[in-house]
Every structure is written in C-alpha cells, then in structure tokens.
Design the sequence.
C-alpha cells in the first residue's frame, strides 16, 4: 500500500520568508513518481513538479525548489522569498511508474495550507 | 489544447437528492480518474476509466455512487441519494499513458449537501 504524509497542516509566514513543506512517503514499488500540486483559493489543482524515483537530483524552478531524499523517503518543497500569491494548499502525491493494466492512481498527502502574510 | 473541464463548478443540494457531475477529459486521453477531497482531508482516489471501461473502482465509497464514461469520452459521476458526508470537492483528471505521469486535473466541482 502507498502512503503519503504531510505532517504540517498549516504554515504561516510573513512575506519574503522562506517556507519548507515536508513530505514523507511509503511505497513498495521499485519505481514511482512523486508530485507536488498547488490548490489556490480558486480551487483548481495546479501541477508543480513530477520526480521519477530514479532521479535524485534536486530541482530548482524560480523560487521553488525540491529536495528528494530516497534514503529517508522524503520529497520536501521549499518556497524561497514567499509572496502573498503563494498562499494555497500544497499537496504531495505518489504514484507507481510501472506500466500496468490497472493504471497508476495518485495517492495524496493531507495537504499543507500555506498562509503568506504581507 | 483544451484542458479537463468539469461542471458544474458548484452544486448545493439537499440530502436525499440526486446530483450528477460531469467531466470532459482532454481529447485523446484514454485514462480518466475521479478523486475527491472531503472535509479538508486528503484527496482520495475514487475510480479510473480506461476508455469506457472501469479499470479500478476500489475507491468508490458505496453504491450510492455511480460513474459512467459513455463511448470513452466524457464521464459522469452520479450520487444518489446524496448524504451530508458526500460534501467536498470532486476532481477529475485525465492522462494519455498508463504510467503515473501527465495527469491534468480539472478545476473540480464543489458539492455541498445540506
């Protein structure tokens, strides 16, 4: 069974502070994908990143960066110099990567609400 | 390319009524998934279609929920009769391959049962 844990339910920061969101996962799959999604107040799910389990390189995209540590089963997400527009709920998710008839559903964590105050 | 479209965006119904949610996936995407987020909890998988066939419906909570995908195009999710605990946001996603990649989510339908 797959499981994703986001221990932080809510984080409040002041604009320009950095914020790191933790994500710990469990899976028996040898290959898998890890994802981060953002859900702004408008409600839609916005894809941020997908990481293959074979690729442990950290990634940076603008103010966003991700730290994948396979040894600790963690895939943490950092927003640098946060802005008010970053206020949202952020979800970490996991799916298998093998091609199989049943497909690969996503297992989500509980989400972390980030509130960035001006 | 048009994204995944869901409607209605919001629905408020009384307990015991029937509601039908619709999802139009990206054209050409064989895989269509339904998920829901209830009461601020995690987003949970409901079911997965490959074309018109139900590939995995292990997440469907009970027999009050019925999903269909006519001709492998759009999908509907009917809740009949709706209960208070069905309130939440229902998301649809589609993807082209069977690997866990390339998911595109719709904007969701916020269902409120009163």
Sequence:
């Amino acid at each position: 069974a797959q499981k994703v844990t986001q221990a932080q339910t809510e984080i409040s920061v002041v604009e320009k502070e950095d914020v790191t969101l933790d994500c710990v996962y469990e899976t028996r799959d040898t290959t898998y994908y890890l994802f981060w999604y953002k859900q702004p107040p408008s409600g839609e799910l916005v894809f941020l990143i997908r990481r293959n389990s074979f690729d442990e390189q950290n990634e940076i995209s603008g103010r966003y960066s991700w730290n994948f540590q396979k040894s600790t089963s963690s895939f943490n997400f950092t927003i640098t110099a946060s802005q008010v527009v970053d206020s949202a709920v952020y979800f970490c998710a996991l799916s298998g990567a093998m091609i199989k008839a049943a497909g690969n559903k996503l297992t989500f964590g509980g989400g972390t609400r980030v509130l960035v105050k001006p | 390319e048009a994204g995944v479209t869901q409607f209605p965006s919001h629905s408020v119904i009384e307990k015991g009524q029937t509601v039908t949610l619709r999802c139009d996936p990206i054209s050409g995407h064989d895989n269509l998934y339904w998920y829901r987020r209830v009461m601020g909890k995690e987003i949970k998988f409901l079911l997965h279609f490959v074309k018109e066939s139900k590939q995995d419906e292990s997440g469907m909570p009970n027999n009050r929920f019925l999903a269909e995908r006519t001709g492998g195009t759009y999908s509907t999710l009917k809740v009949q009769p709706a209960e208070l605990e069905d309130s939440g946001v229902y998301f649809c996603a589609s993807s082209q391959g069977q690997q866990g990649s390339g998911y595109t989510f719709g904007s969701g339908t916020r269902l409120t049962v009163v």
